[in-house]
Amino acid sequence: MLNNIILLCQLNKRKFSYVFIFALFTRSIFADIVYLKDGTIYENVHILATSGGGIQFETASKEVQTFTTGRVLRLRYGDNIVEPINILLKDGTLIEGFLIEQDSRIVTIRRIKDSVNEENILKDNVKQMSANKIVVVYPEMDLRLGAFMPLNSGGSKLGVGFMGWLGFYITPPFLPKSKTGIEAGYVYIKSDTNKNMVMHLIPALVNFQYMINVSSKSSMEFNLAPRVGLGGAFLIFNDGEGGNFSSVLPAFGGGIGLYMTLVPKKLFLNTFVDYVGLLDSKGMLHSLMGSIAVQYRF
Question: With respect to CATH, is domain 140-297 assigned 3.30.70.260?
Fold first, then answer.
C-alpha cells in the first residue's frame, strides 16, 4: 500500500513538472502586440492584464508597461511582430505596407508602420497577397493602324502607304515608369507615278519607351511616351516592269506617343509619330509614321 502511494506521488510530481515546463515553453514562444492610438506599436510583448480601465504588459526586456484603455487602439494575441505585406489588386495596383489585421472579408494595412493612418481593403478586390515582394510586369498588347510616308524614295516616287502593327509590351520591375517590348508590322506602298510599282515591308522592332505623366486634375490620365527602337525589316519591291527585289534590312527608329486612359489600368488609346530608318547597300531610306493604337493590359 505504501509503495503504491509513493508511486502515485512520483507520477503526479512528474506530471506537474511536464505541465510547468510546457507553460514556460509556450510563454517563451507566444507573444502579443499592442497598438496605441498615436500609432505606436509594442511588438513581442506579453499581455498581463486588461482589466480595471487599463492594460498591463511585459516587454521583451522585462519592463512592465501600463496604459489606460483610452490610449489603446487594439490588441493582437499570439503574434510577436507586425509583418510586411505586399498586395496586388485585381485592377493592377500594387500596395506595399504592413499587415495590421485581417478577417474573412477585409485586410487592414498601414503604408507606414508607425502611422495612425490605416486602410481597409476588401479581399474580393485582391488578386495576390504575400509577405514577399510581388514582381509585376503588366503585360500589354496593342494594335496600331496608320500611315507610312517615305521621305527619300528617289525615282520610285513612293507615296503614302497603309500600315498595321501588333505589339507586346511589359513594364520592367527595375524601371516602373517605362515599357519595353517588340512590335511587328506590315506596310503597303504604291508609287505615285507607276501604280504597278509596289513596296511591301515587314518590319520588327524592339522598343523602349519612358512614360511621363502629364495629366491635369481631370479624371482622365495622359502620358507622353518618348521611345526608341532597333530591329530589322523584310523588304519586297516590285518595280512595275516584272522585276522583283527582296532583302532583309537593318532598321531603327524613334518617336513620341500620347497615351490616354480609357479604362484605368486596363484600356488605353494611343497616338504616335515616329521616324524609321532603313539601311541598304545604296543608302538610307528615311520614313515617317503616324498611327493610332488601342492597347489592352492583361
Answer: no
155-182 pLDDT, tens digit each: 788 999 999 999 999 999 888 899 999 9
| Domain spans of the chain, in order of start | 13-77, 84-130, 140-297
d(CA 19, CA 11): 12
> Between the CA of residue 117 and those of 36, 160, 255, what are the distances in Å?
12, 58, 43
Q: Same topology for domains 84-130 and 140-297, yes or no?
A: no
Cα–Cα distance between 236 and 257 in angstroms, integer?
Answer: 29
Name the pTM for this structure. 0.67
CATH class, 13-77 region:
mainly beta
pLDDT single digits (tens) 111-153: 999 999 999 999 999 999 999 988 889 999 999 999 999 998 8
Asked: is 84-130 a CATH 1.10.390.10 domain? The reply is no
